Amino acid sequence: MSVVPIASQPQFLRLGVNIDHVATIRNARGGLHPDPVRAAQVAAEAGADGITLHIREDRRHVREDDLIRLALAVSQPINLEMACTDEMLAIAVRARPHAVCLVPERREERTTEGGLDVARHHSAVAPFVRTLSDAGARVSLFIDPHPVQVAVAQALGAPVVELHTGAFCEALALGDVTRAERELGLLREAAALGAERGLEIHAGHGITFESVGPVAAIPQISELNIGHFLVGEAIFIGFEGAVRRMRSLMDQARAGAIAAE
Questions:
Q1: One digit per residue, pLDDT tens: the chain, 261 residues?
Q2: Vertex 137, ends 131 and 139: CA angle to 5°?
Q3: Which of 45, 2, 13 lies closest to 220 in space, CA to CA?
Q4: Catalytic residue among 21, 61, 202, 205, which?
Q5: Do residues 224 and 14 make contact, with C-beta atoms less than 8 angstroms apart?
Q6: Pair 53, 19: CB distance under 8 Å
Q7: Which of 21, 54, 164, 202 is catalytic?
Q8: Which of the following is catalytic: 61, 81, 202, 223?
């Protein structure tokens, strides 16, 4: 029987639920409802292993007070997504979440459009990785699945990379099988390379019930972060039901990957 290298062995797959778009609905009319912190509590009860949120410069989603309330309301690890700005760095150092994921951010974008180009901006990203690490945060870099980005992420000293799954999920949703297979191949290659280099591999962006299986089956990935789809699906089956179904689909895909070894 062949021995699978430790870095490539299938492992338990964690689910991080992003609560940003619960806050988006709240902010559409102001006030307090729906409360993203309450959504986080429901997600935790439904099987989420962690809670993710992205404080943007324009505060279109969650705000700093949401982060403070969240830390008091859930026991699950909190993953703060943030741009490399002094303002966000100050918030992260003050709040001390379990993890911080550095992401690109442009004011005019509707959502994150791609990975952080750490190869081009390594000198600007490096001090953020150091400062956040010194503050006790587990730093991850949200990158496109490209070998150069993976290599530079490792060189910057970040212990985690989160692979941008948006291109694969978009191709699958559009029925472009050839492109979807190509993008999935890039994800697989980047995950394997990152694991070989000692990085912890996460993935996220655009994942749905239809696209989660192939991503969850990639053995080196240890965490998926999913938000917008779950909040949208909650309209039809409830937030708890959406999280539970995603959790079940992830577990099925990972179990299939283990059985195939």
A1: 333 333 444 478 999 999 999 999 999 998 899 999 999 999 999 999 999 999 998 898 999 999 999 999 999 999 999 999 999 999 999 999 999 999 997 655 555 567 899 999 999 999 999 999 999 999 999 999 999 999 999 999 999 999 999 999 999 999 999 999 999 999 999 999 999 999 999 999 999 999 999 999 999 999 999 999 999 999 999 999 999 999 999 999 999 888 877
A2: 80
A3: 13
A4: 205
A5: yes
A6: yes
A7: 54
A8: 81
Q: What is the 3-state secondary structure (H, E, C) of the chain?
A: CCCCCHHHCCCCCEEEEECHHHHHHHHHHCCCCCCHHHHHHHHHHCCCCEEEEECCCCCCCCCHHHHHHHHHHCCCCEEEEECCCHHHHHHHHHHCCCEEEECCCCCCCCCCCCCCCCCCCHHHHHHHHHHHHHCCCEEEEEECCCHHHHHHHHHCCCCEEEEECHHHHHHHHCCCHHHHHHHHHHHHHHHHHHHHCCCEEEEECCCCCCCHHHHHCCCCEEEEEECHHHHHHHHHHCHHHHHHHHHHHHHHHHHHHHHHC
Domains and CATH numbers, the chain: 9-260 (3.20.20.70)
pTM of structure: 0.91
Active-site residue, 81 included: yes
Respond yes or no: is residue 61 known to be catalytic. Answer: no
Active site residue 228: no
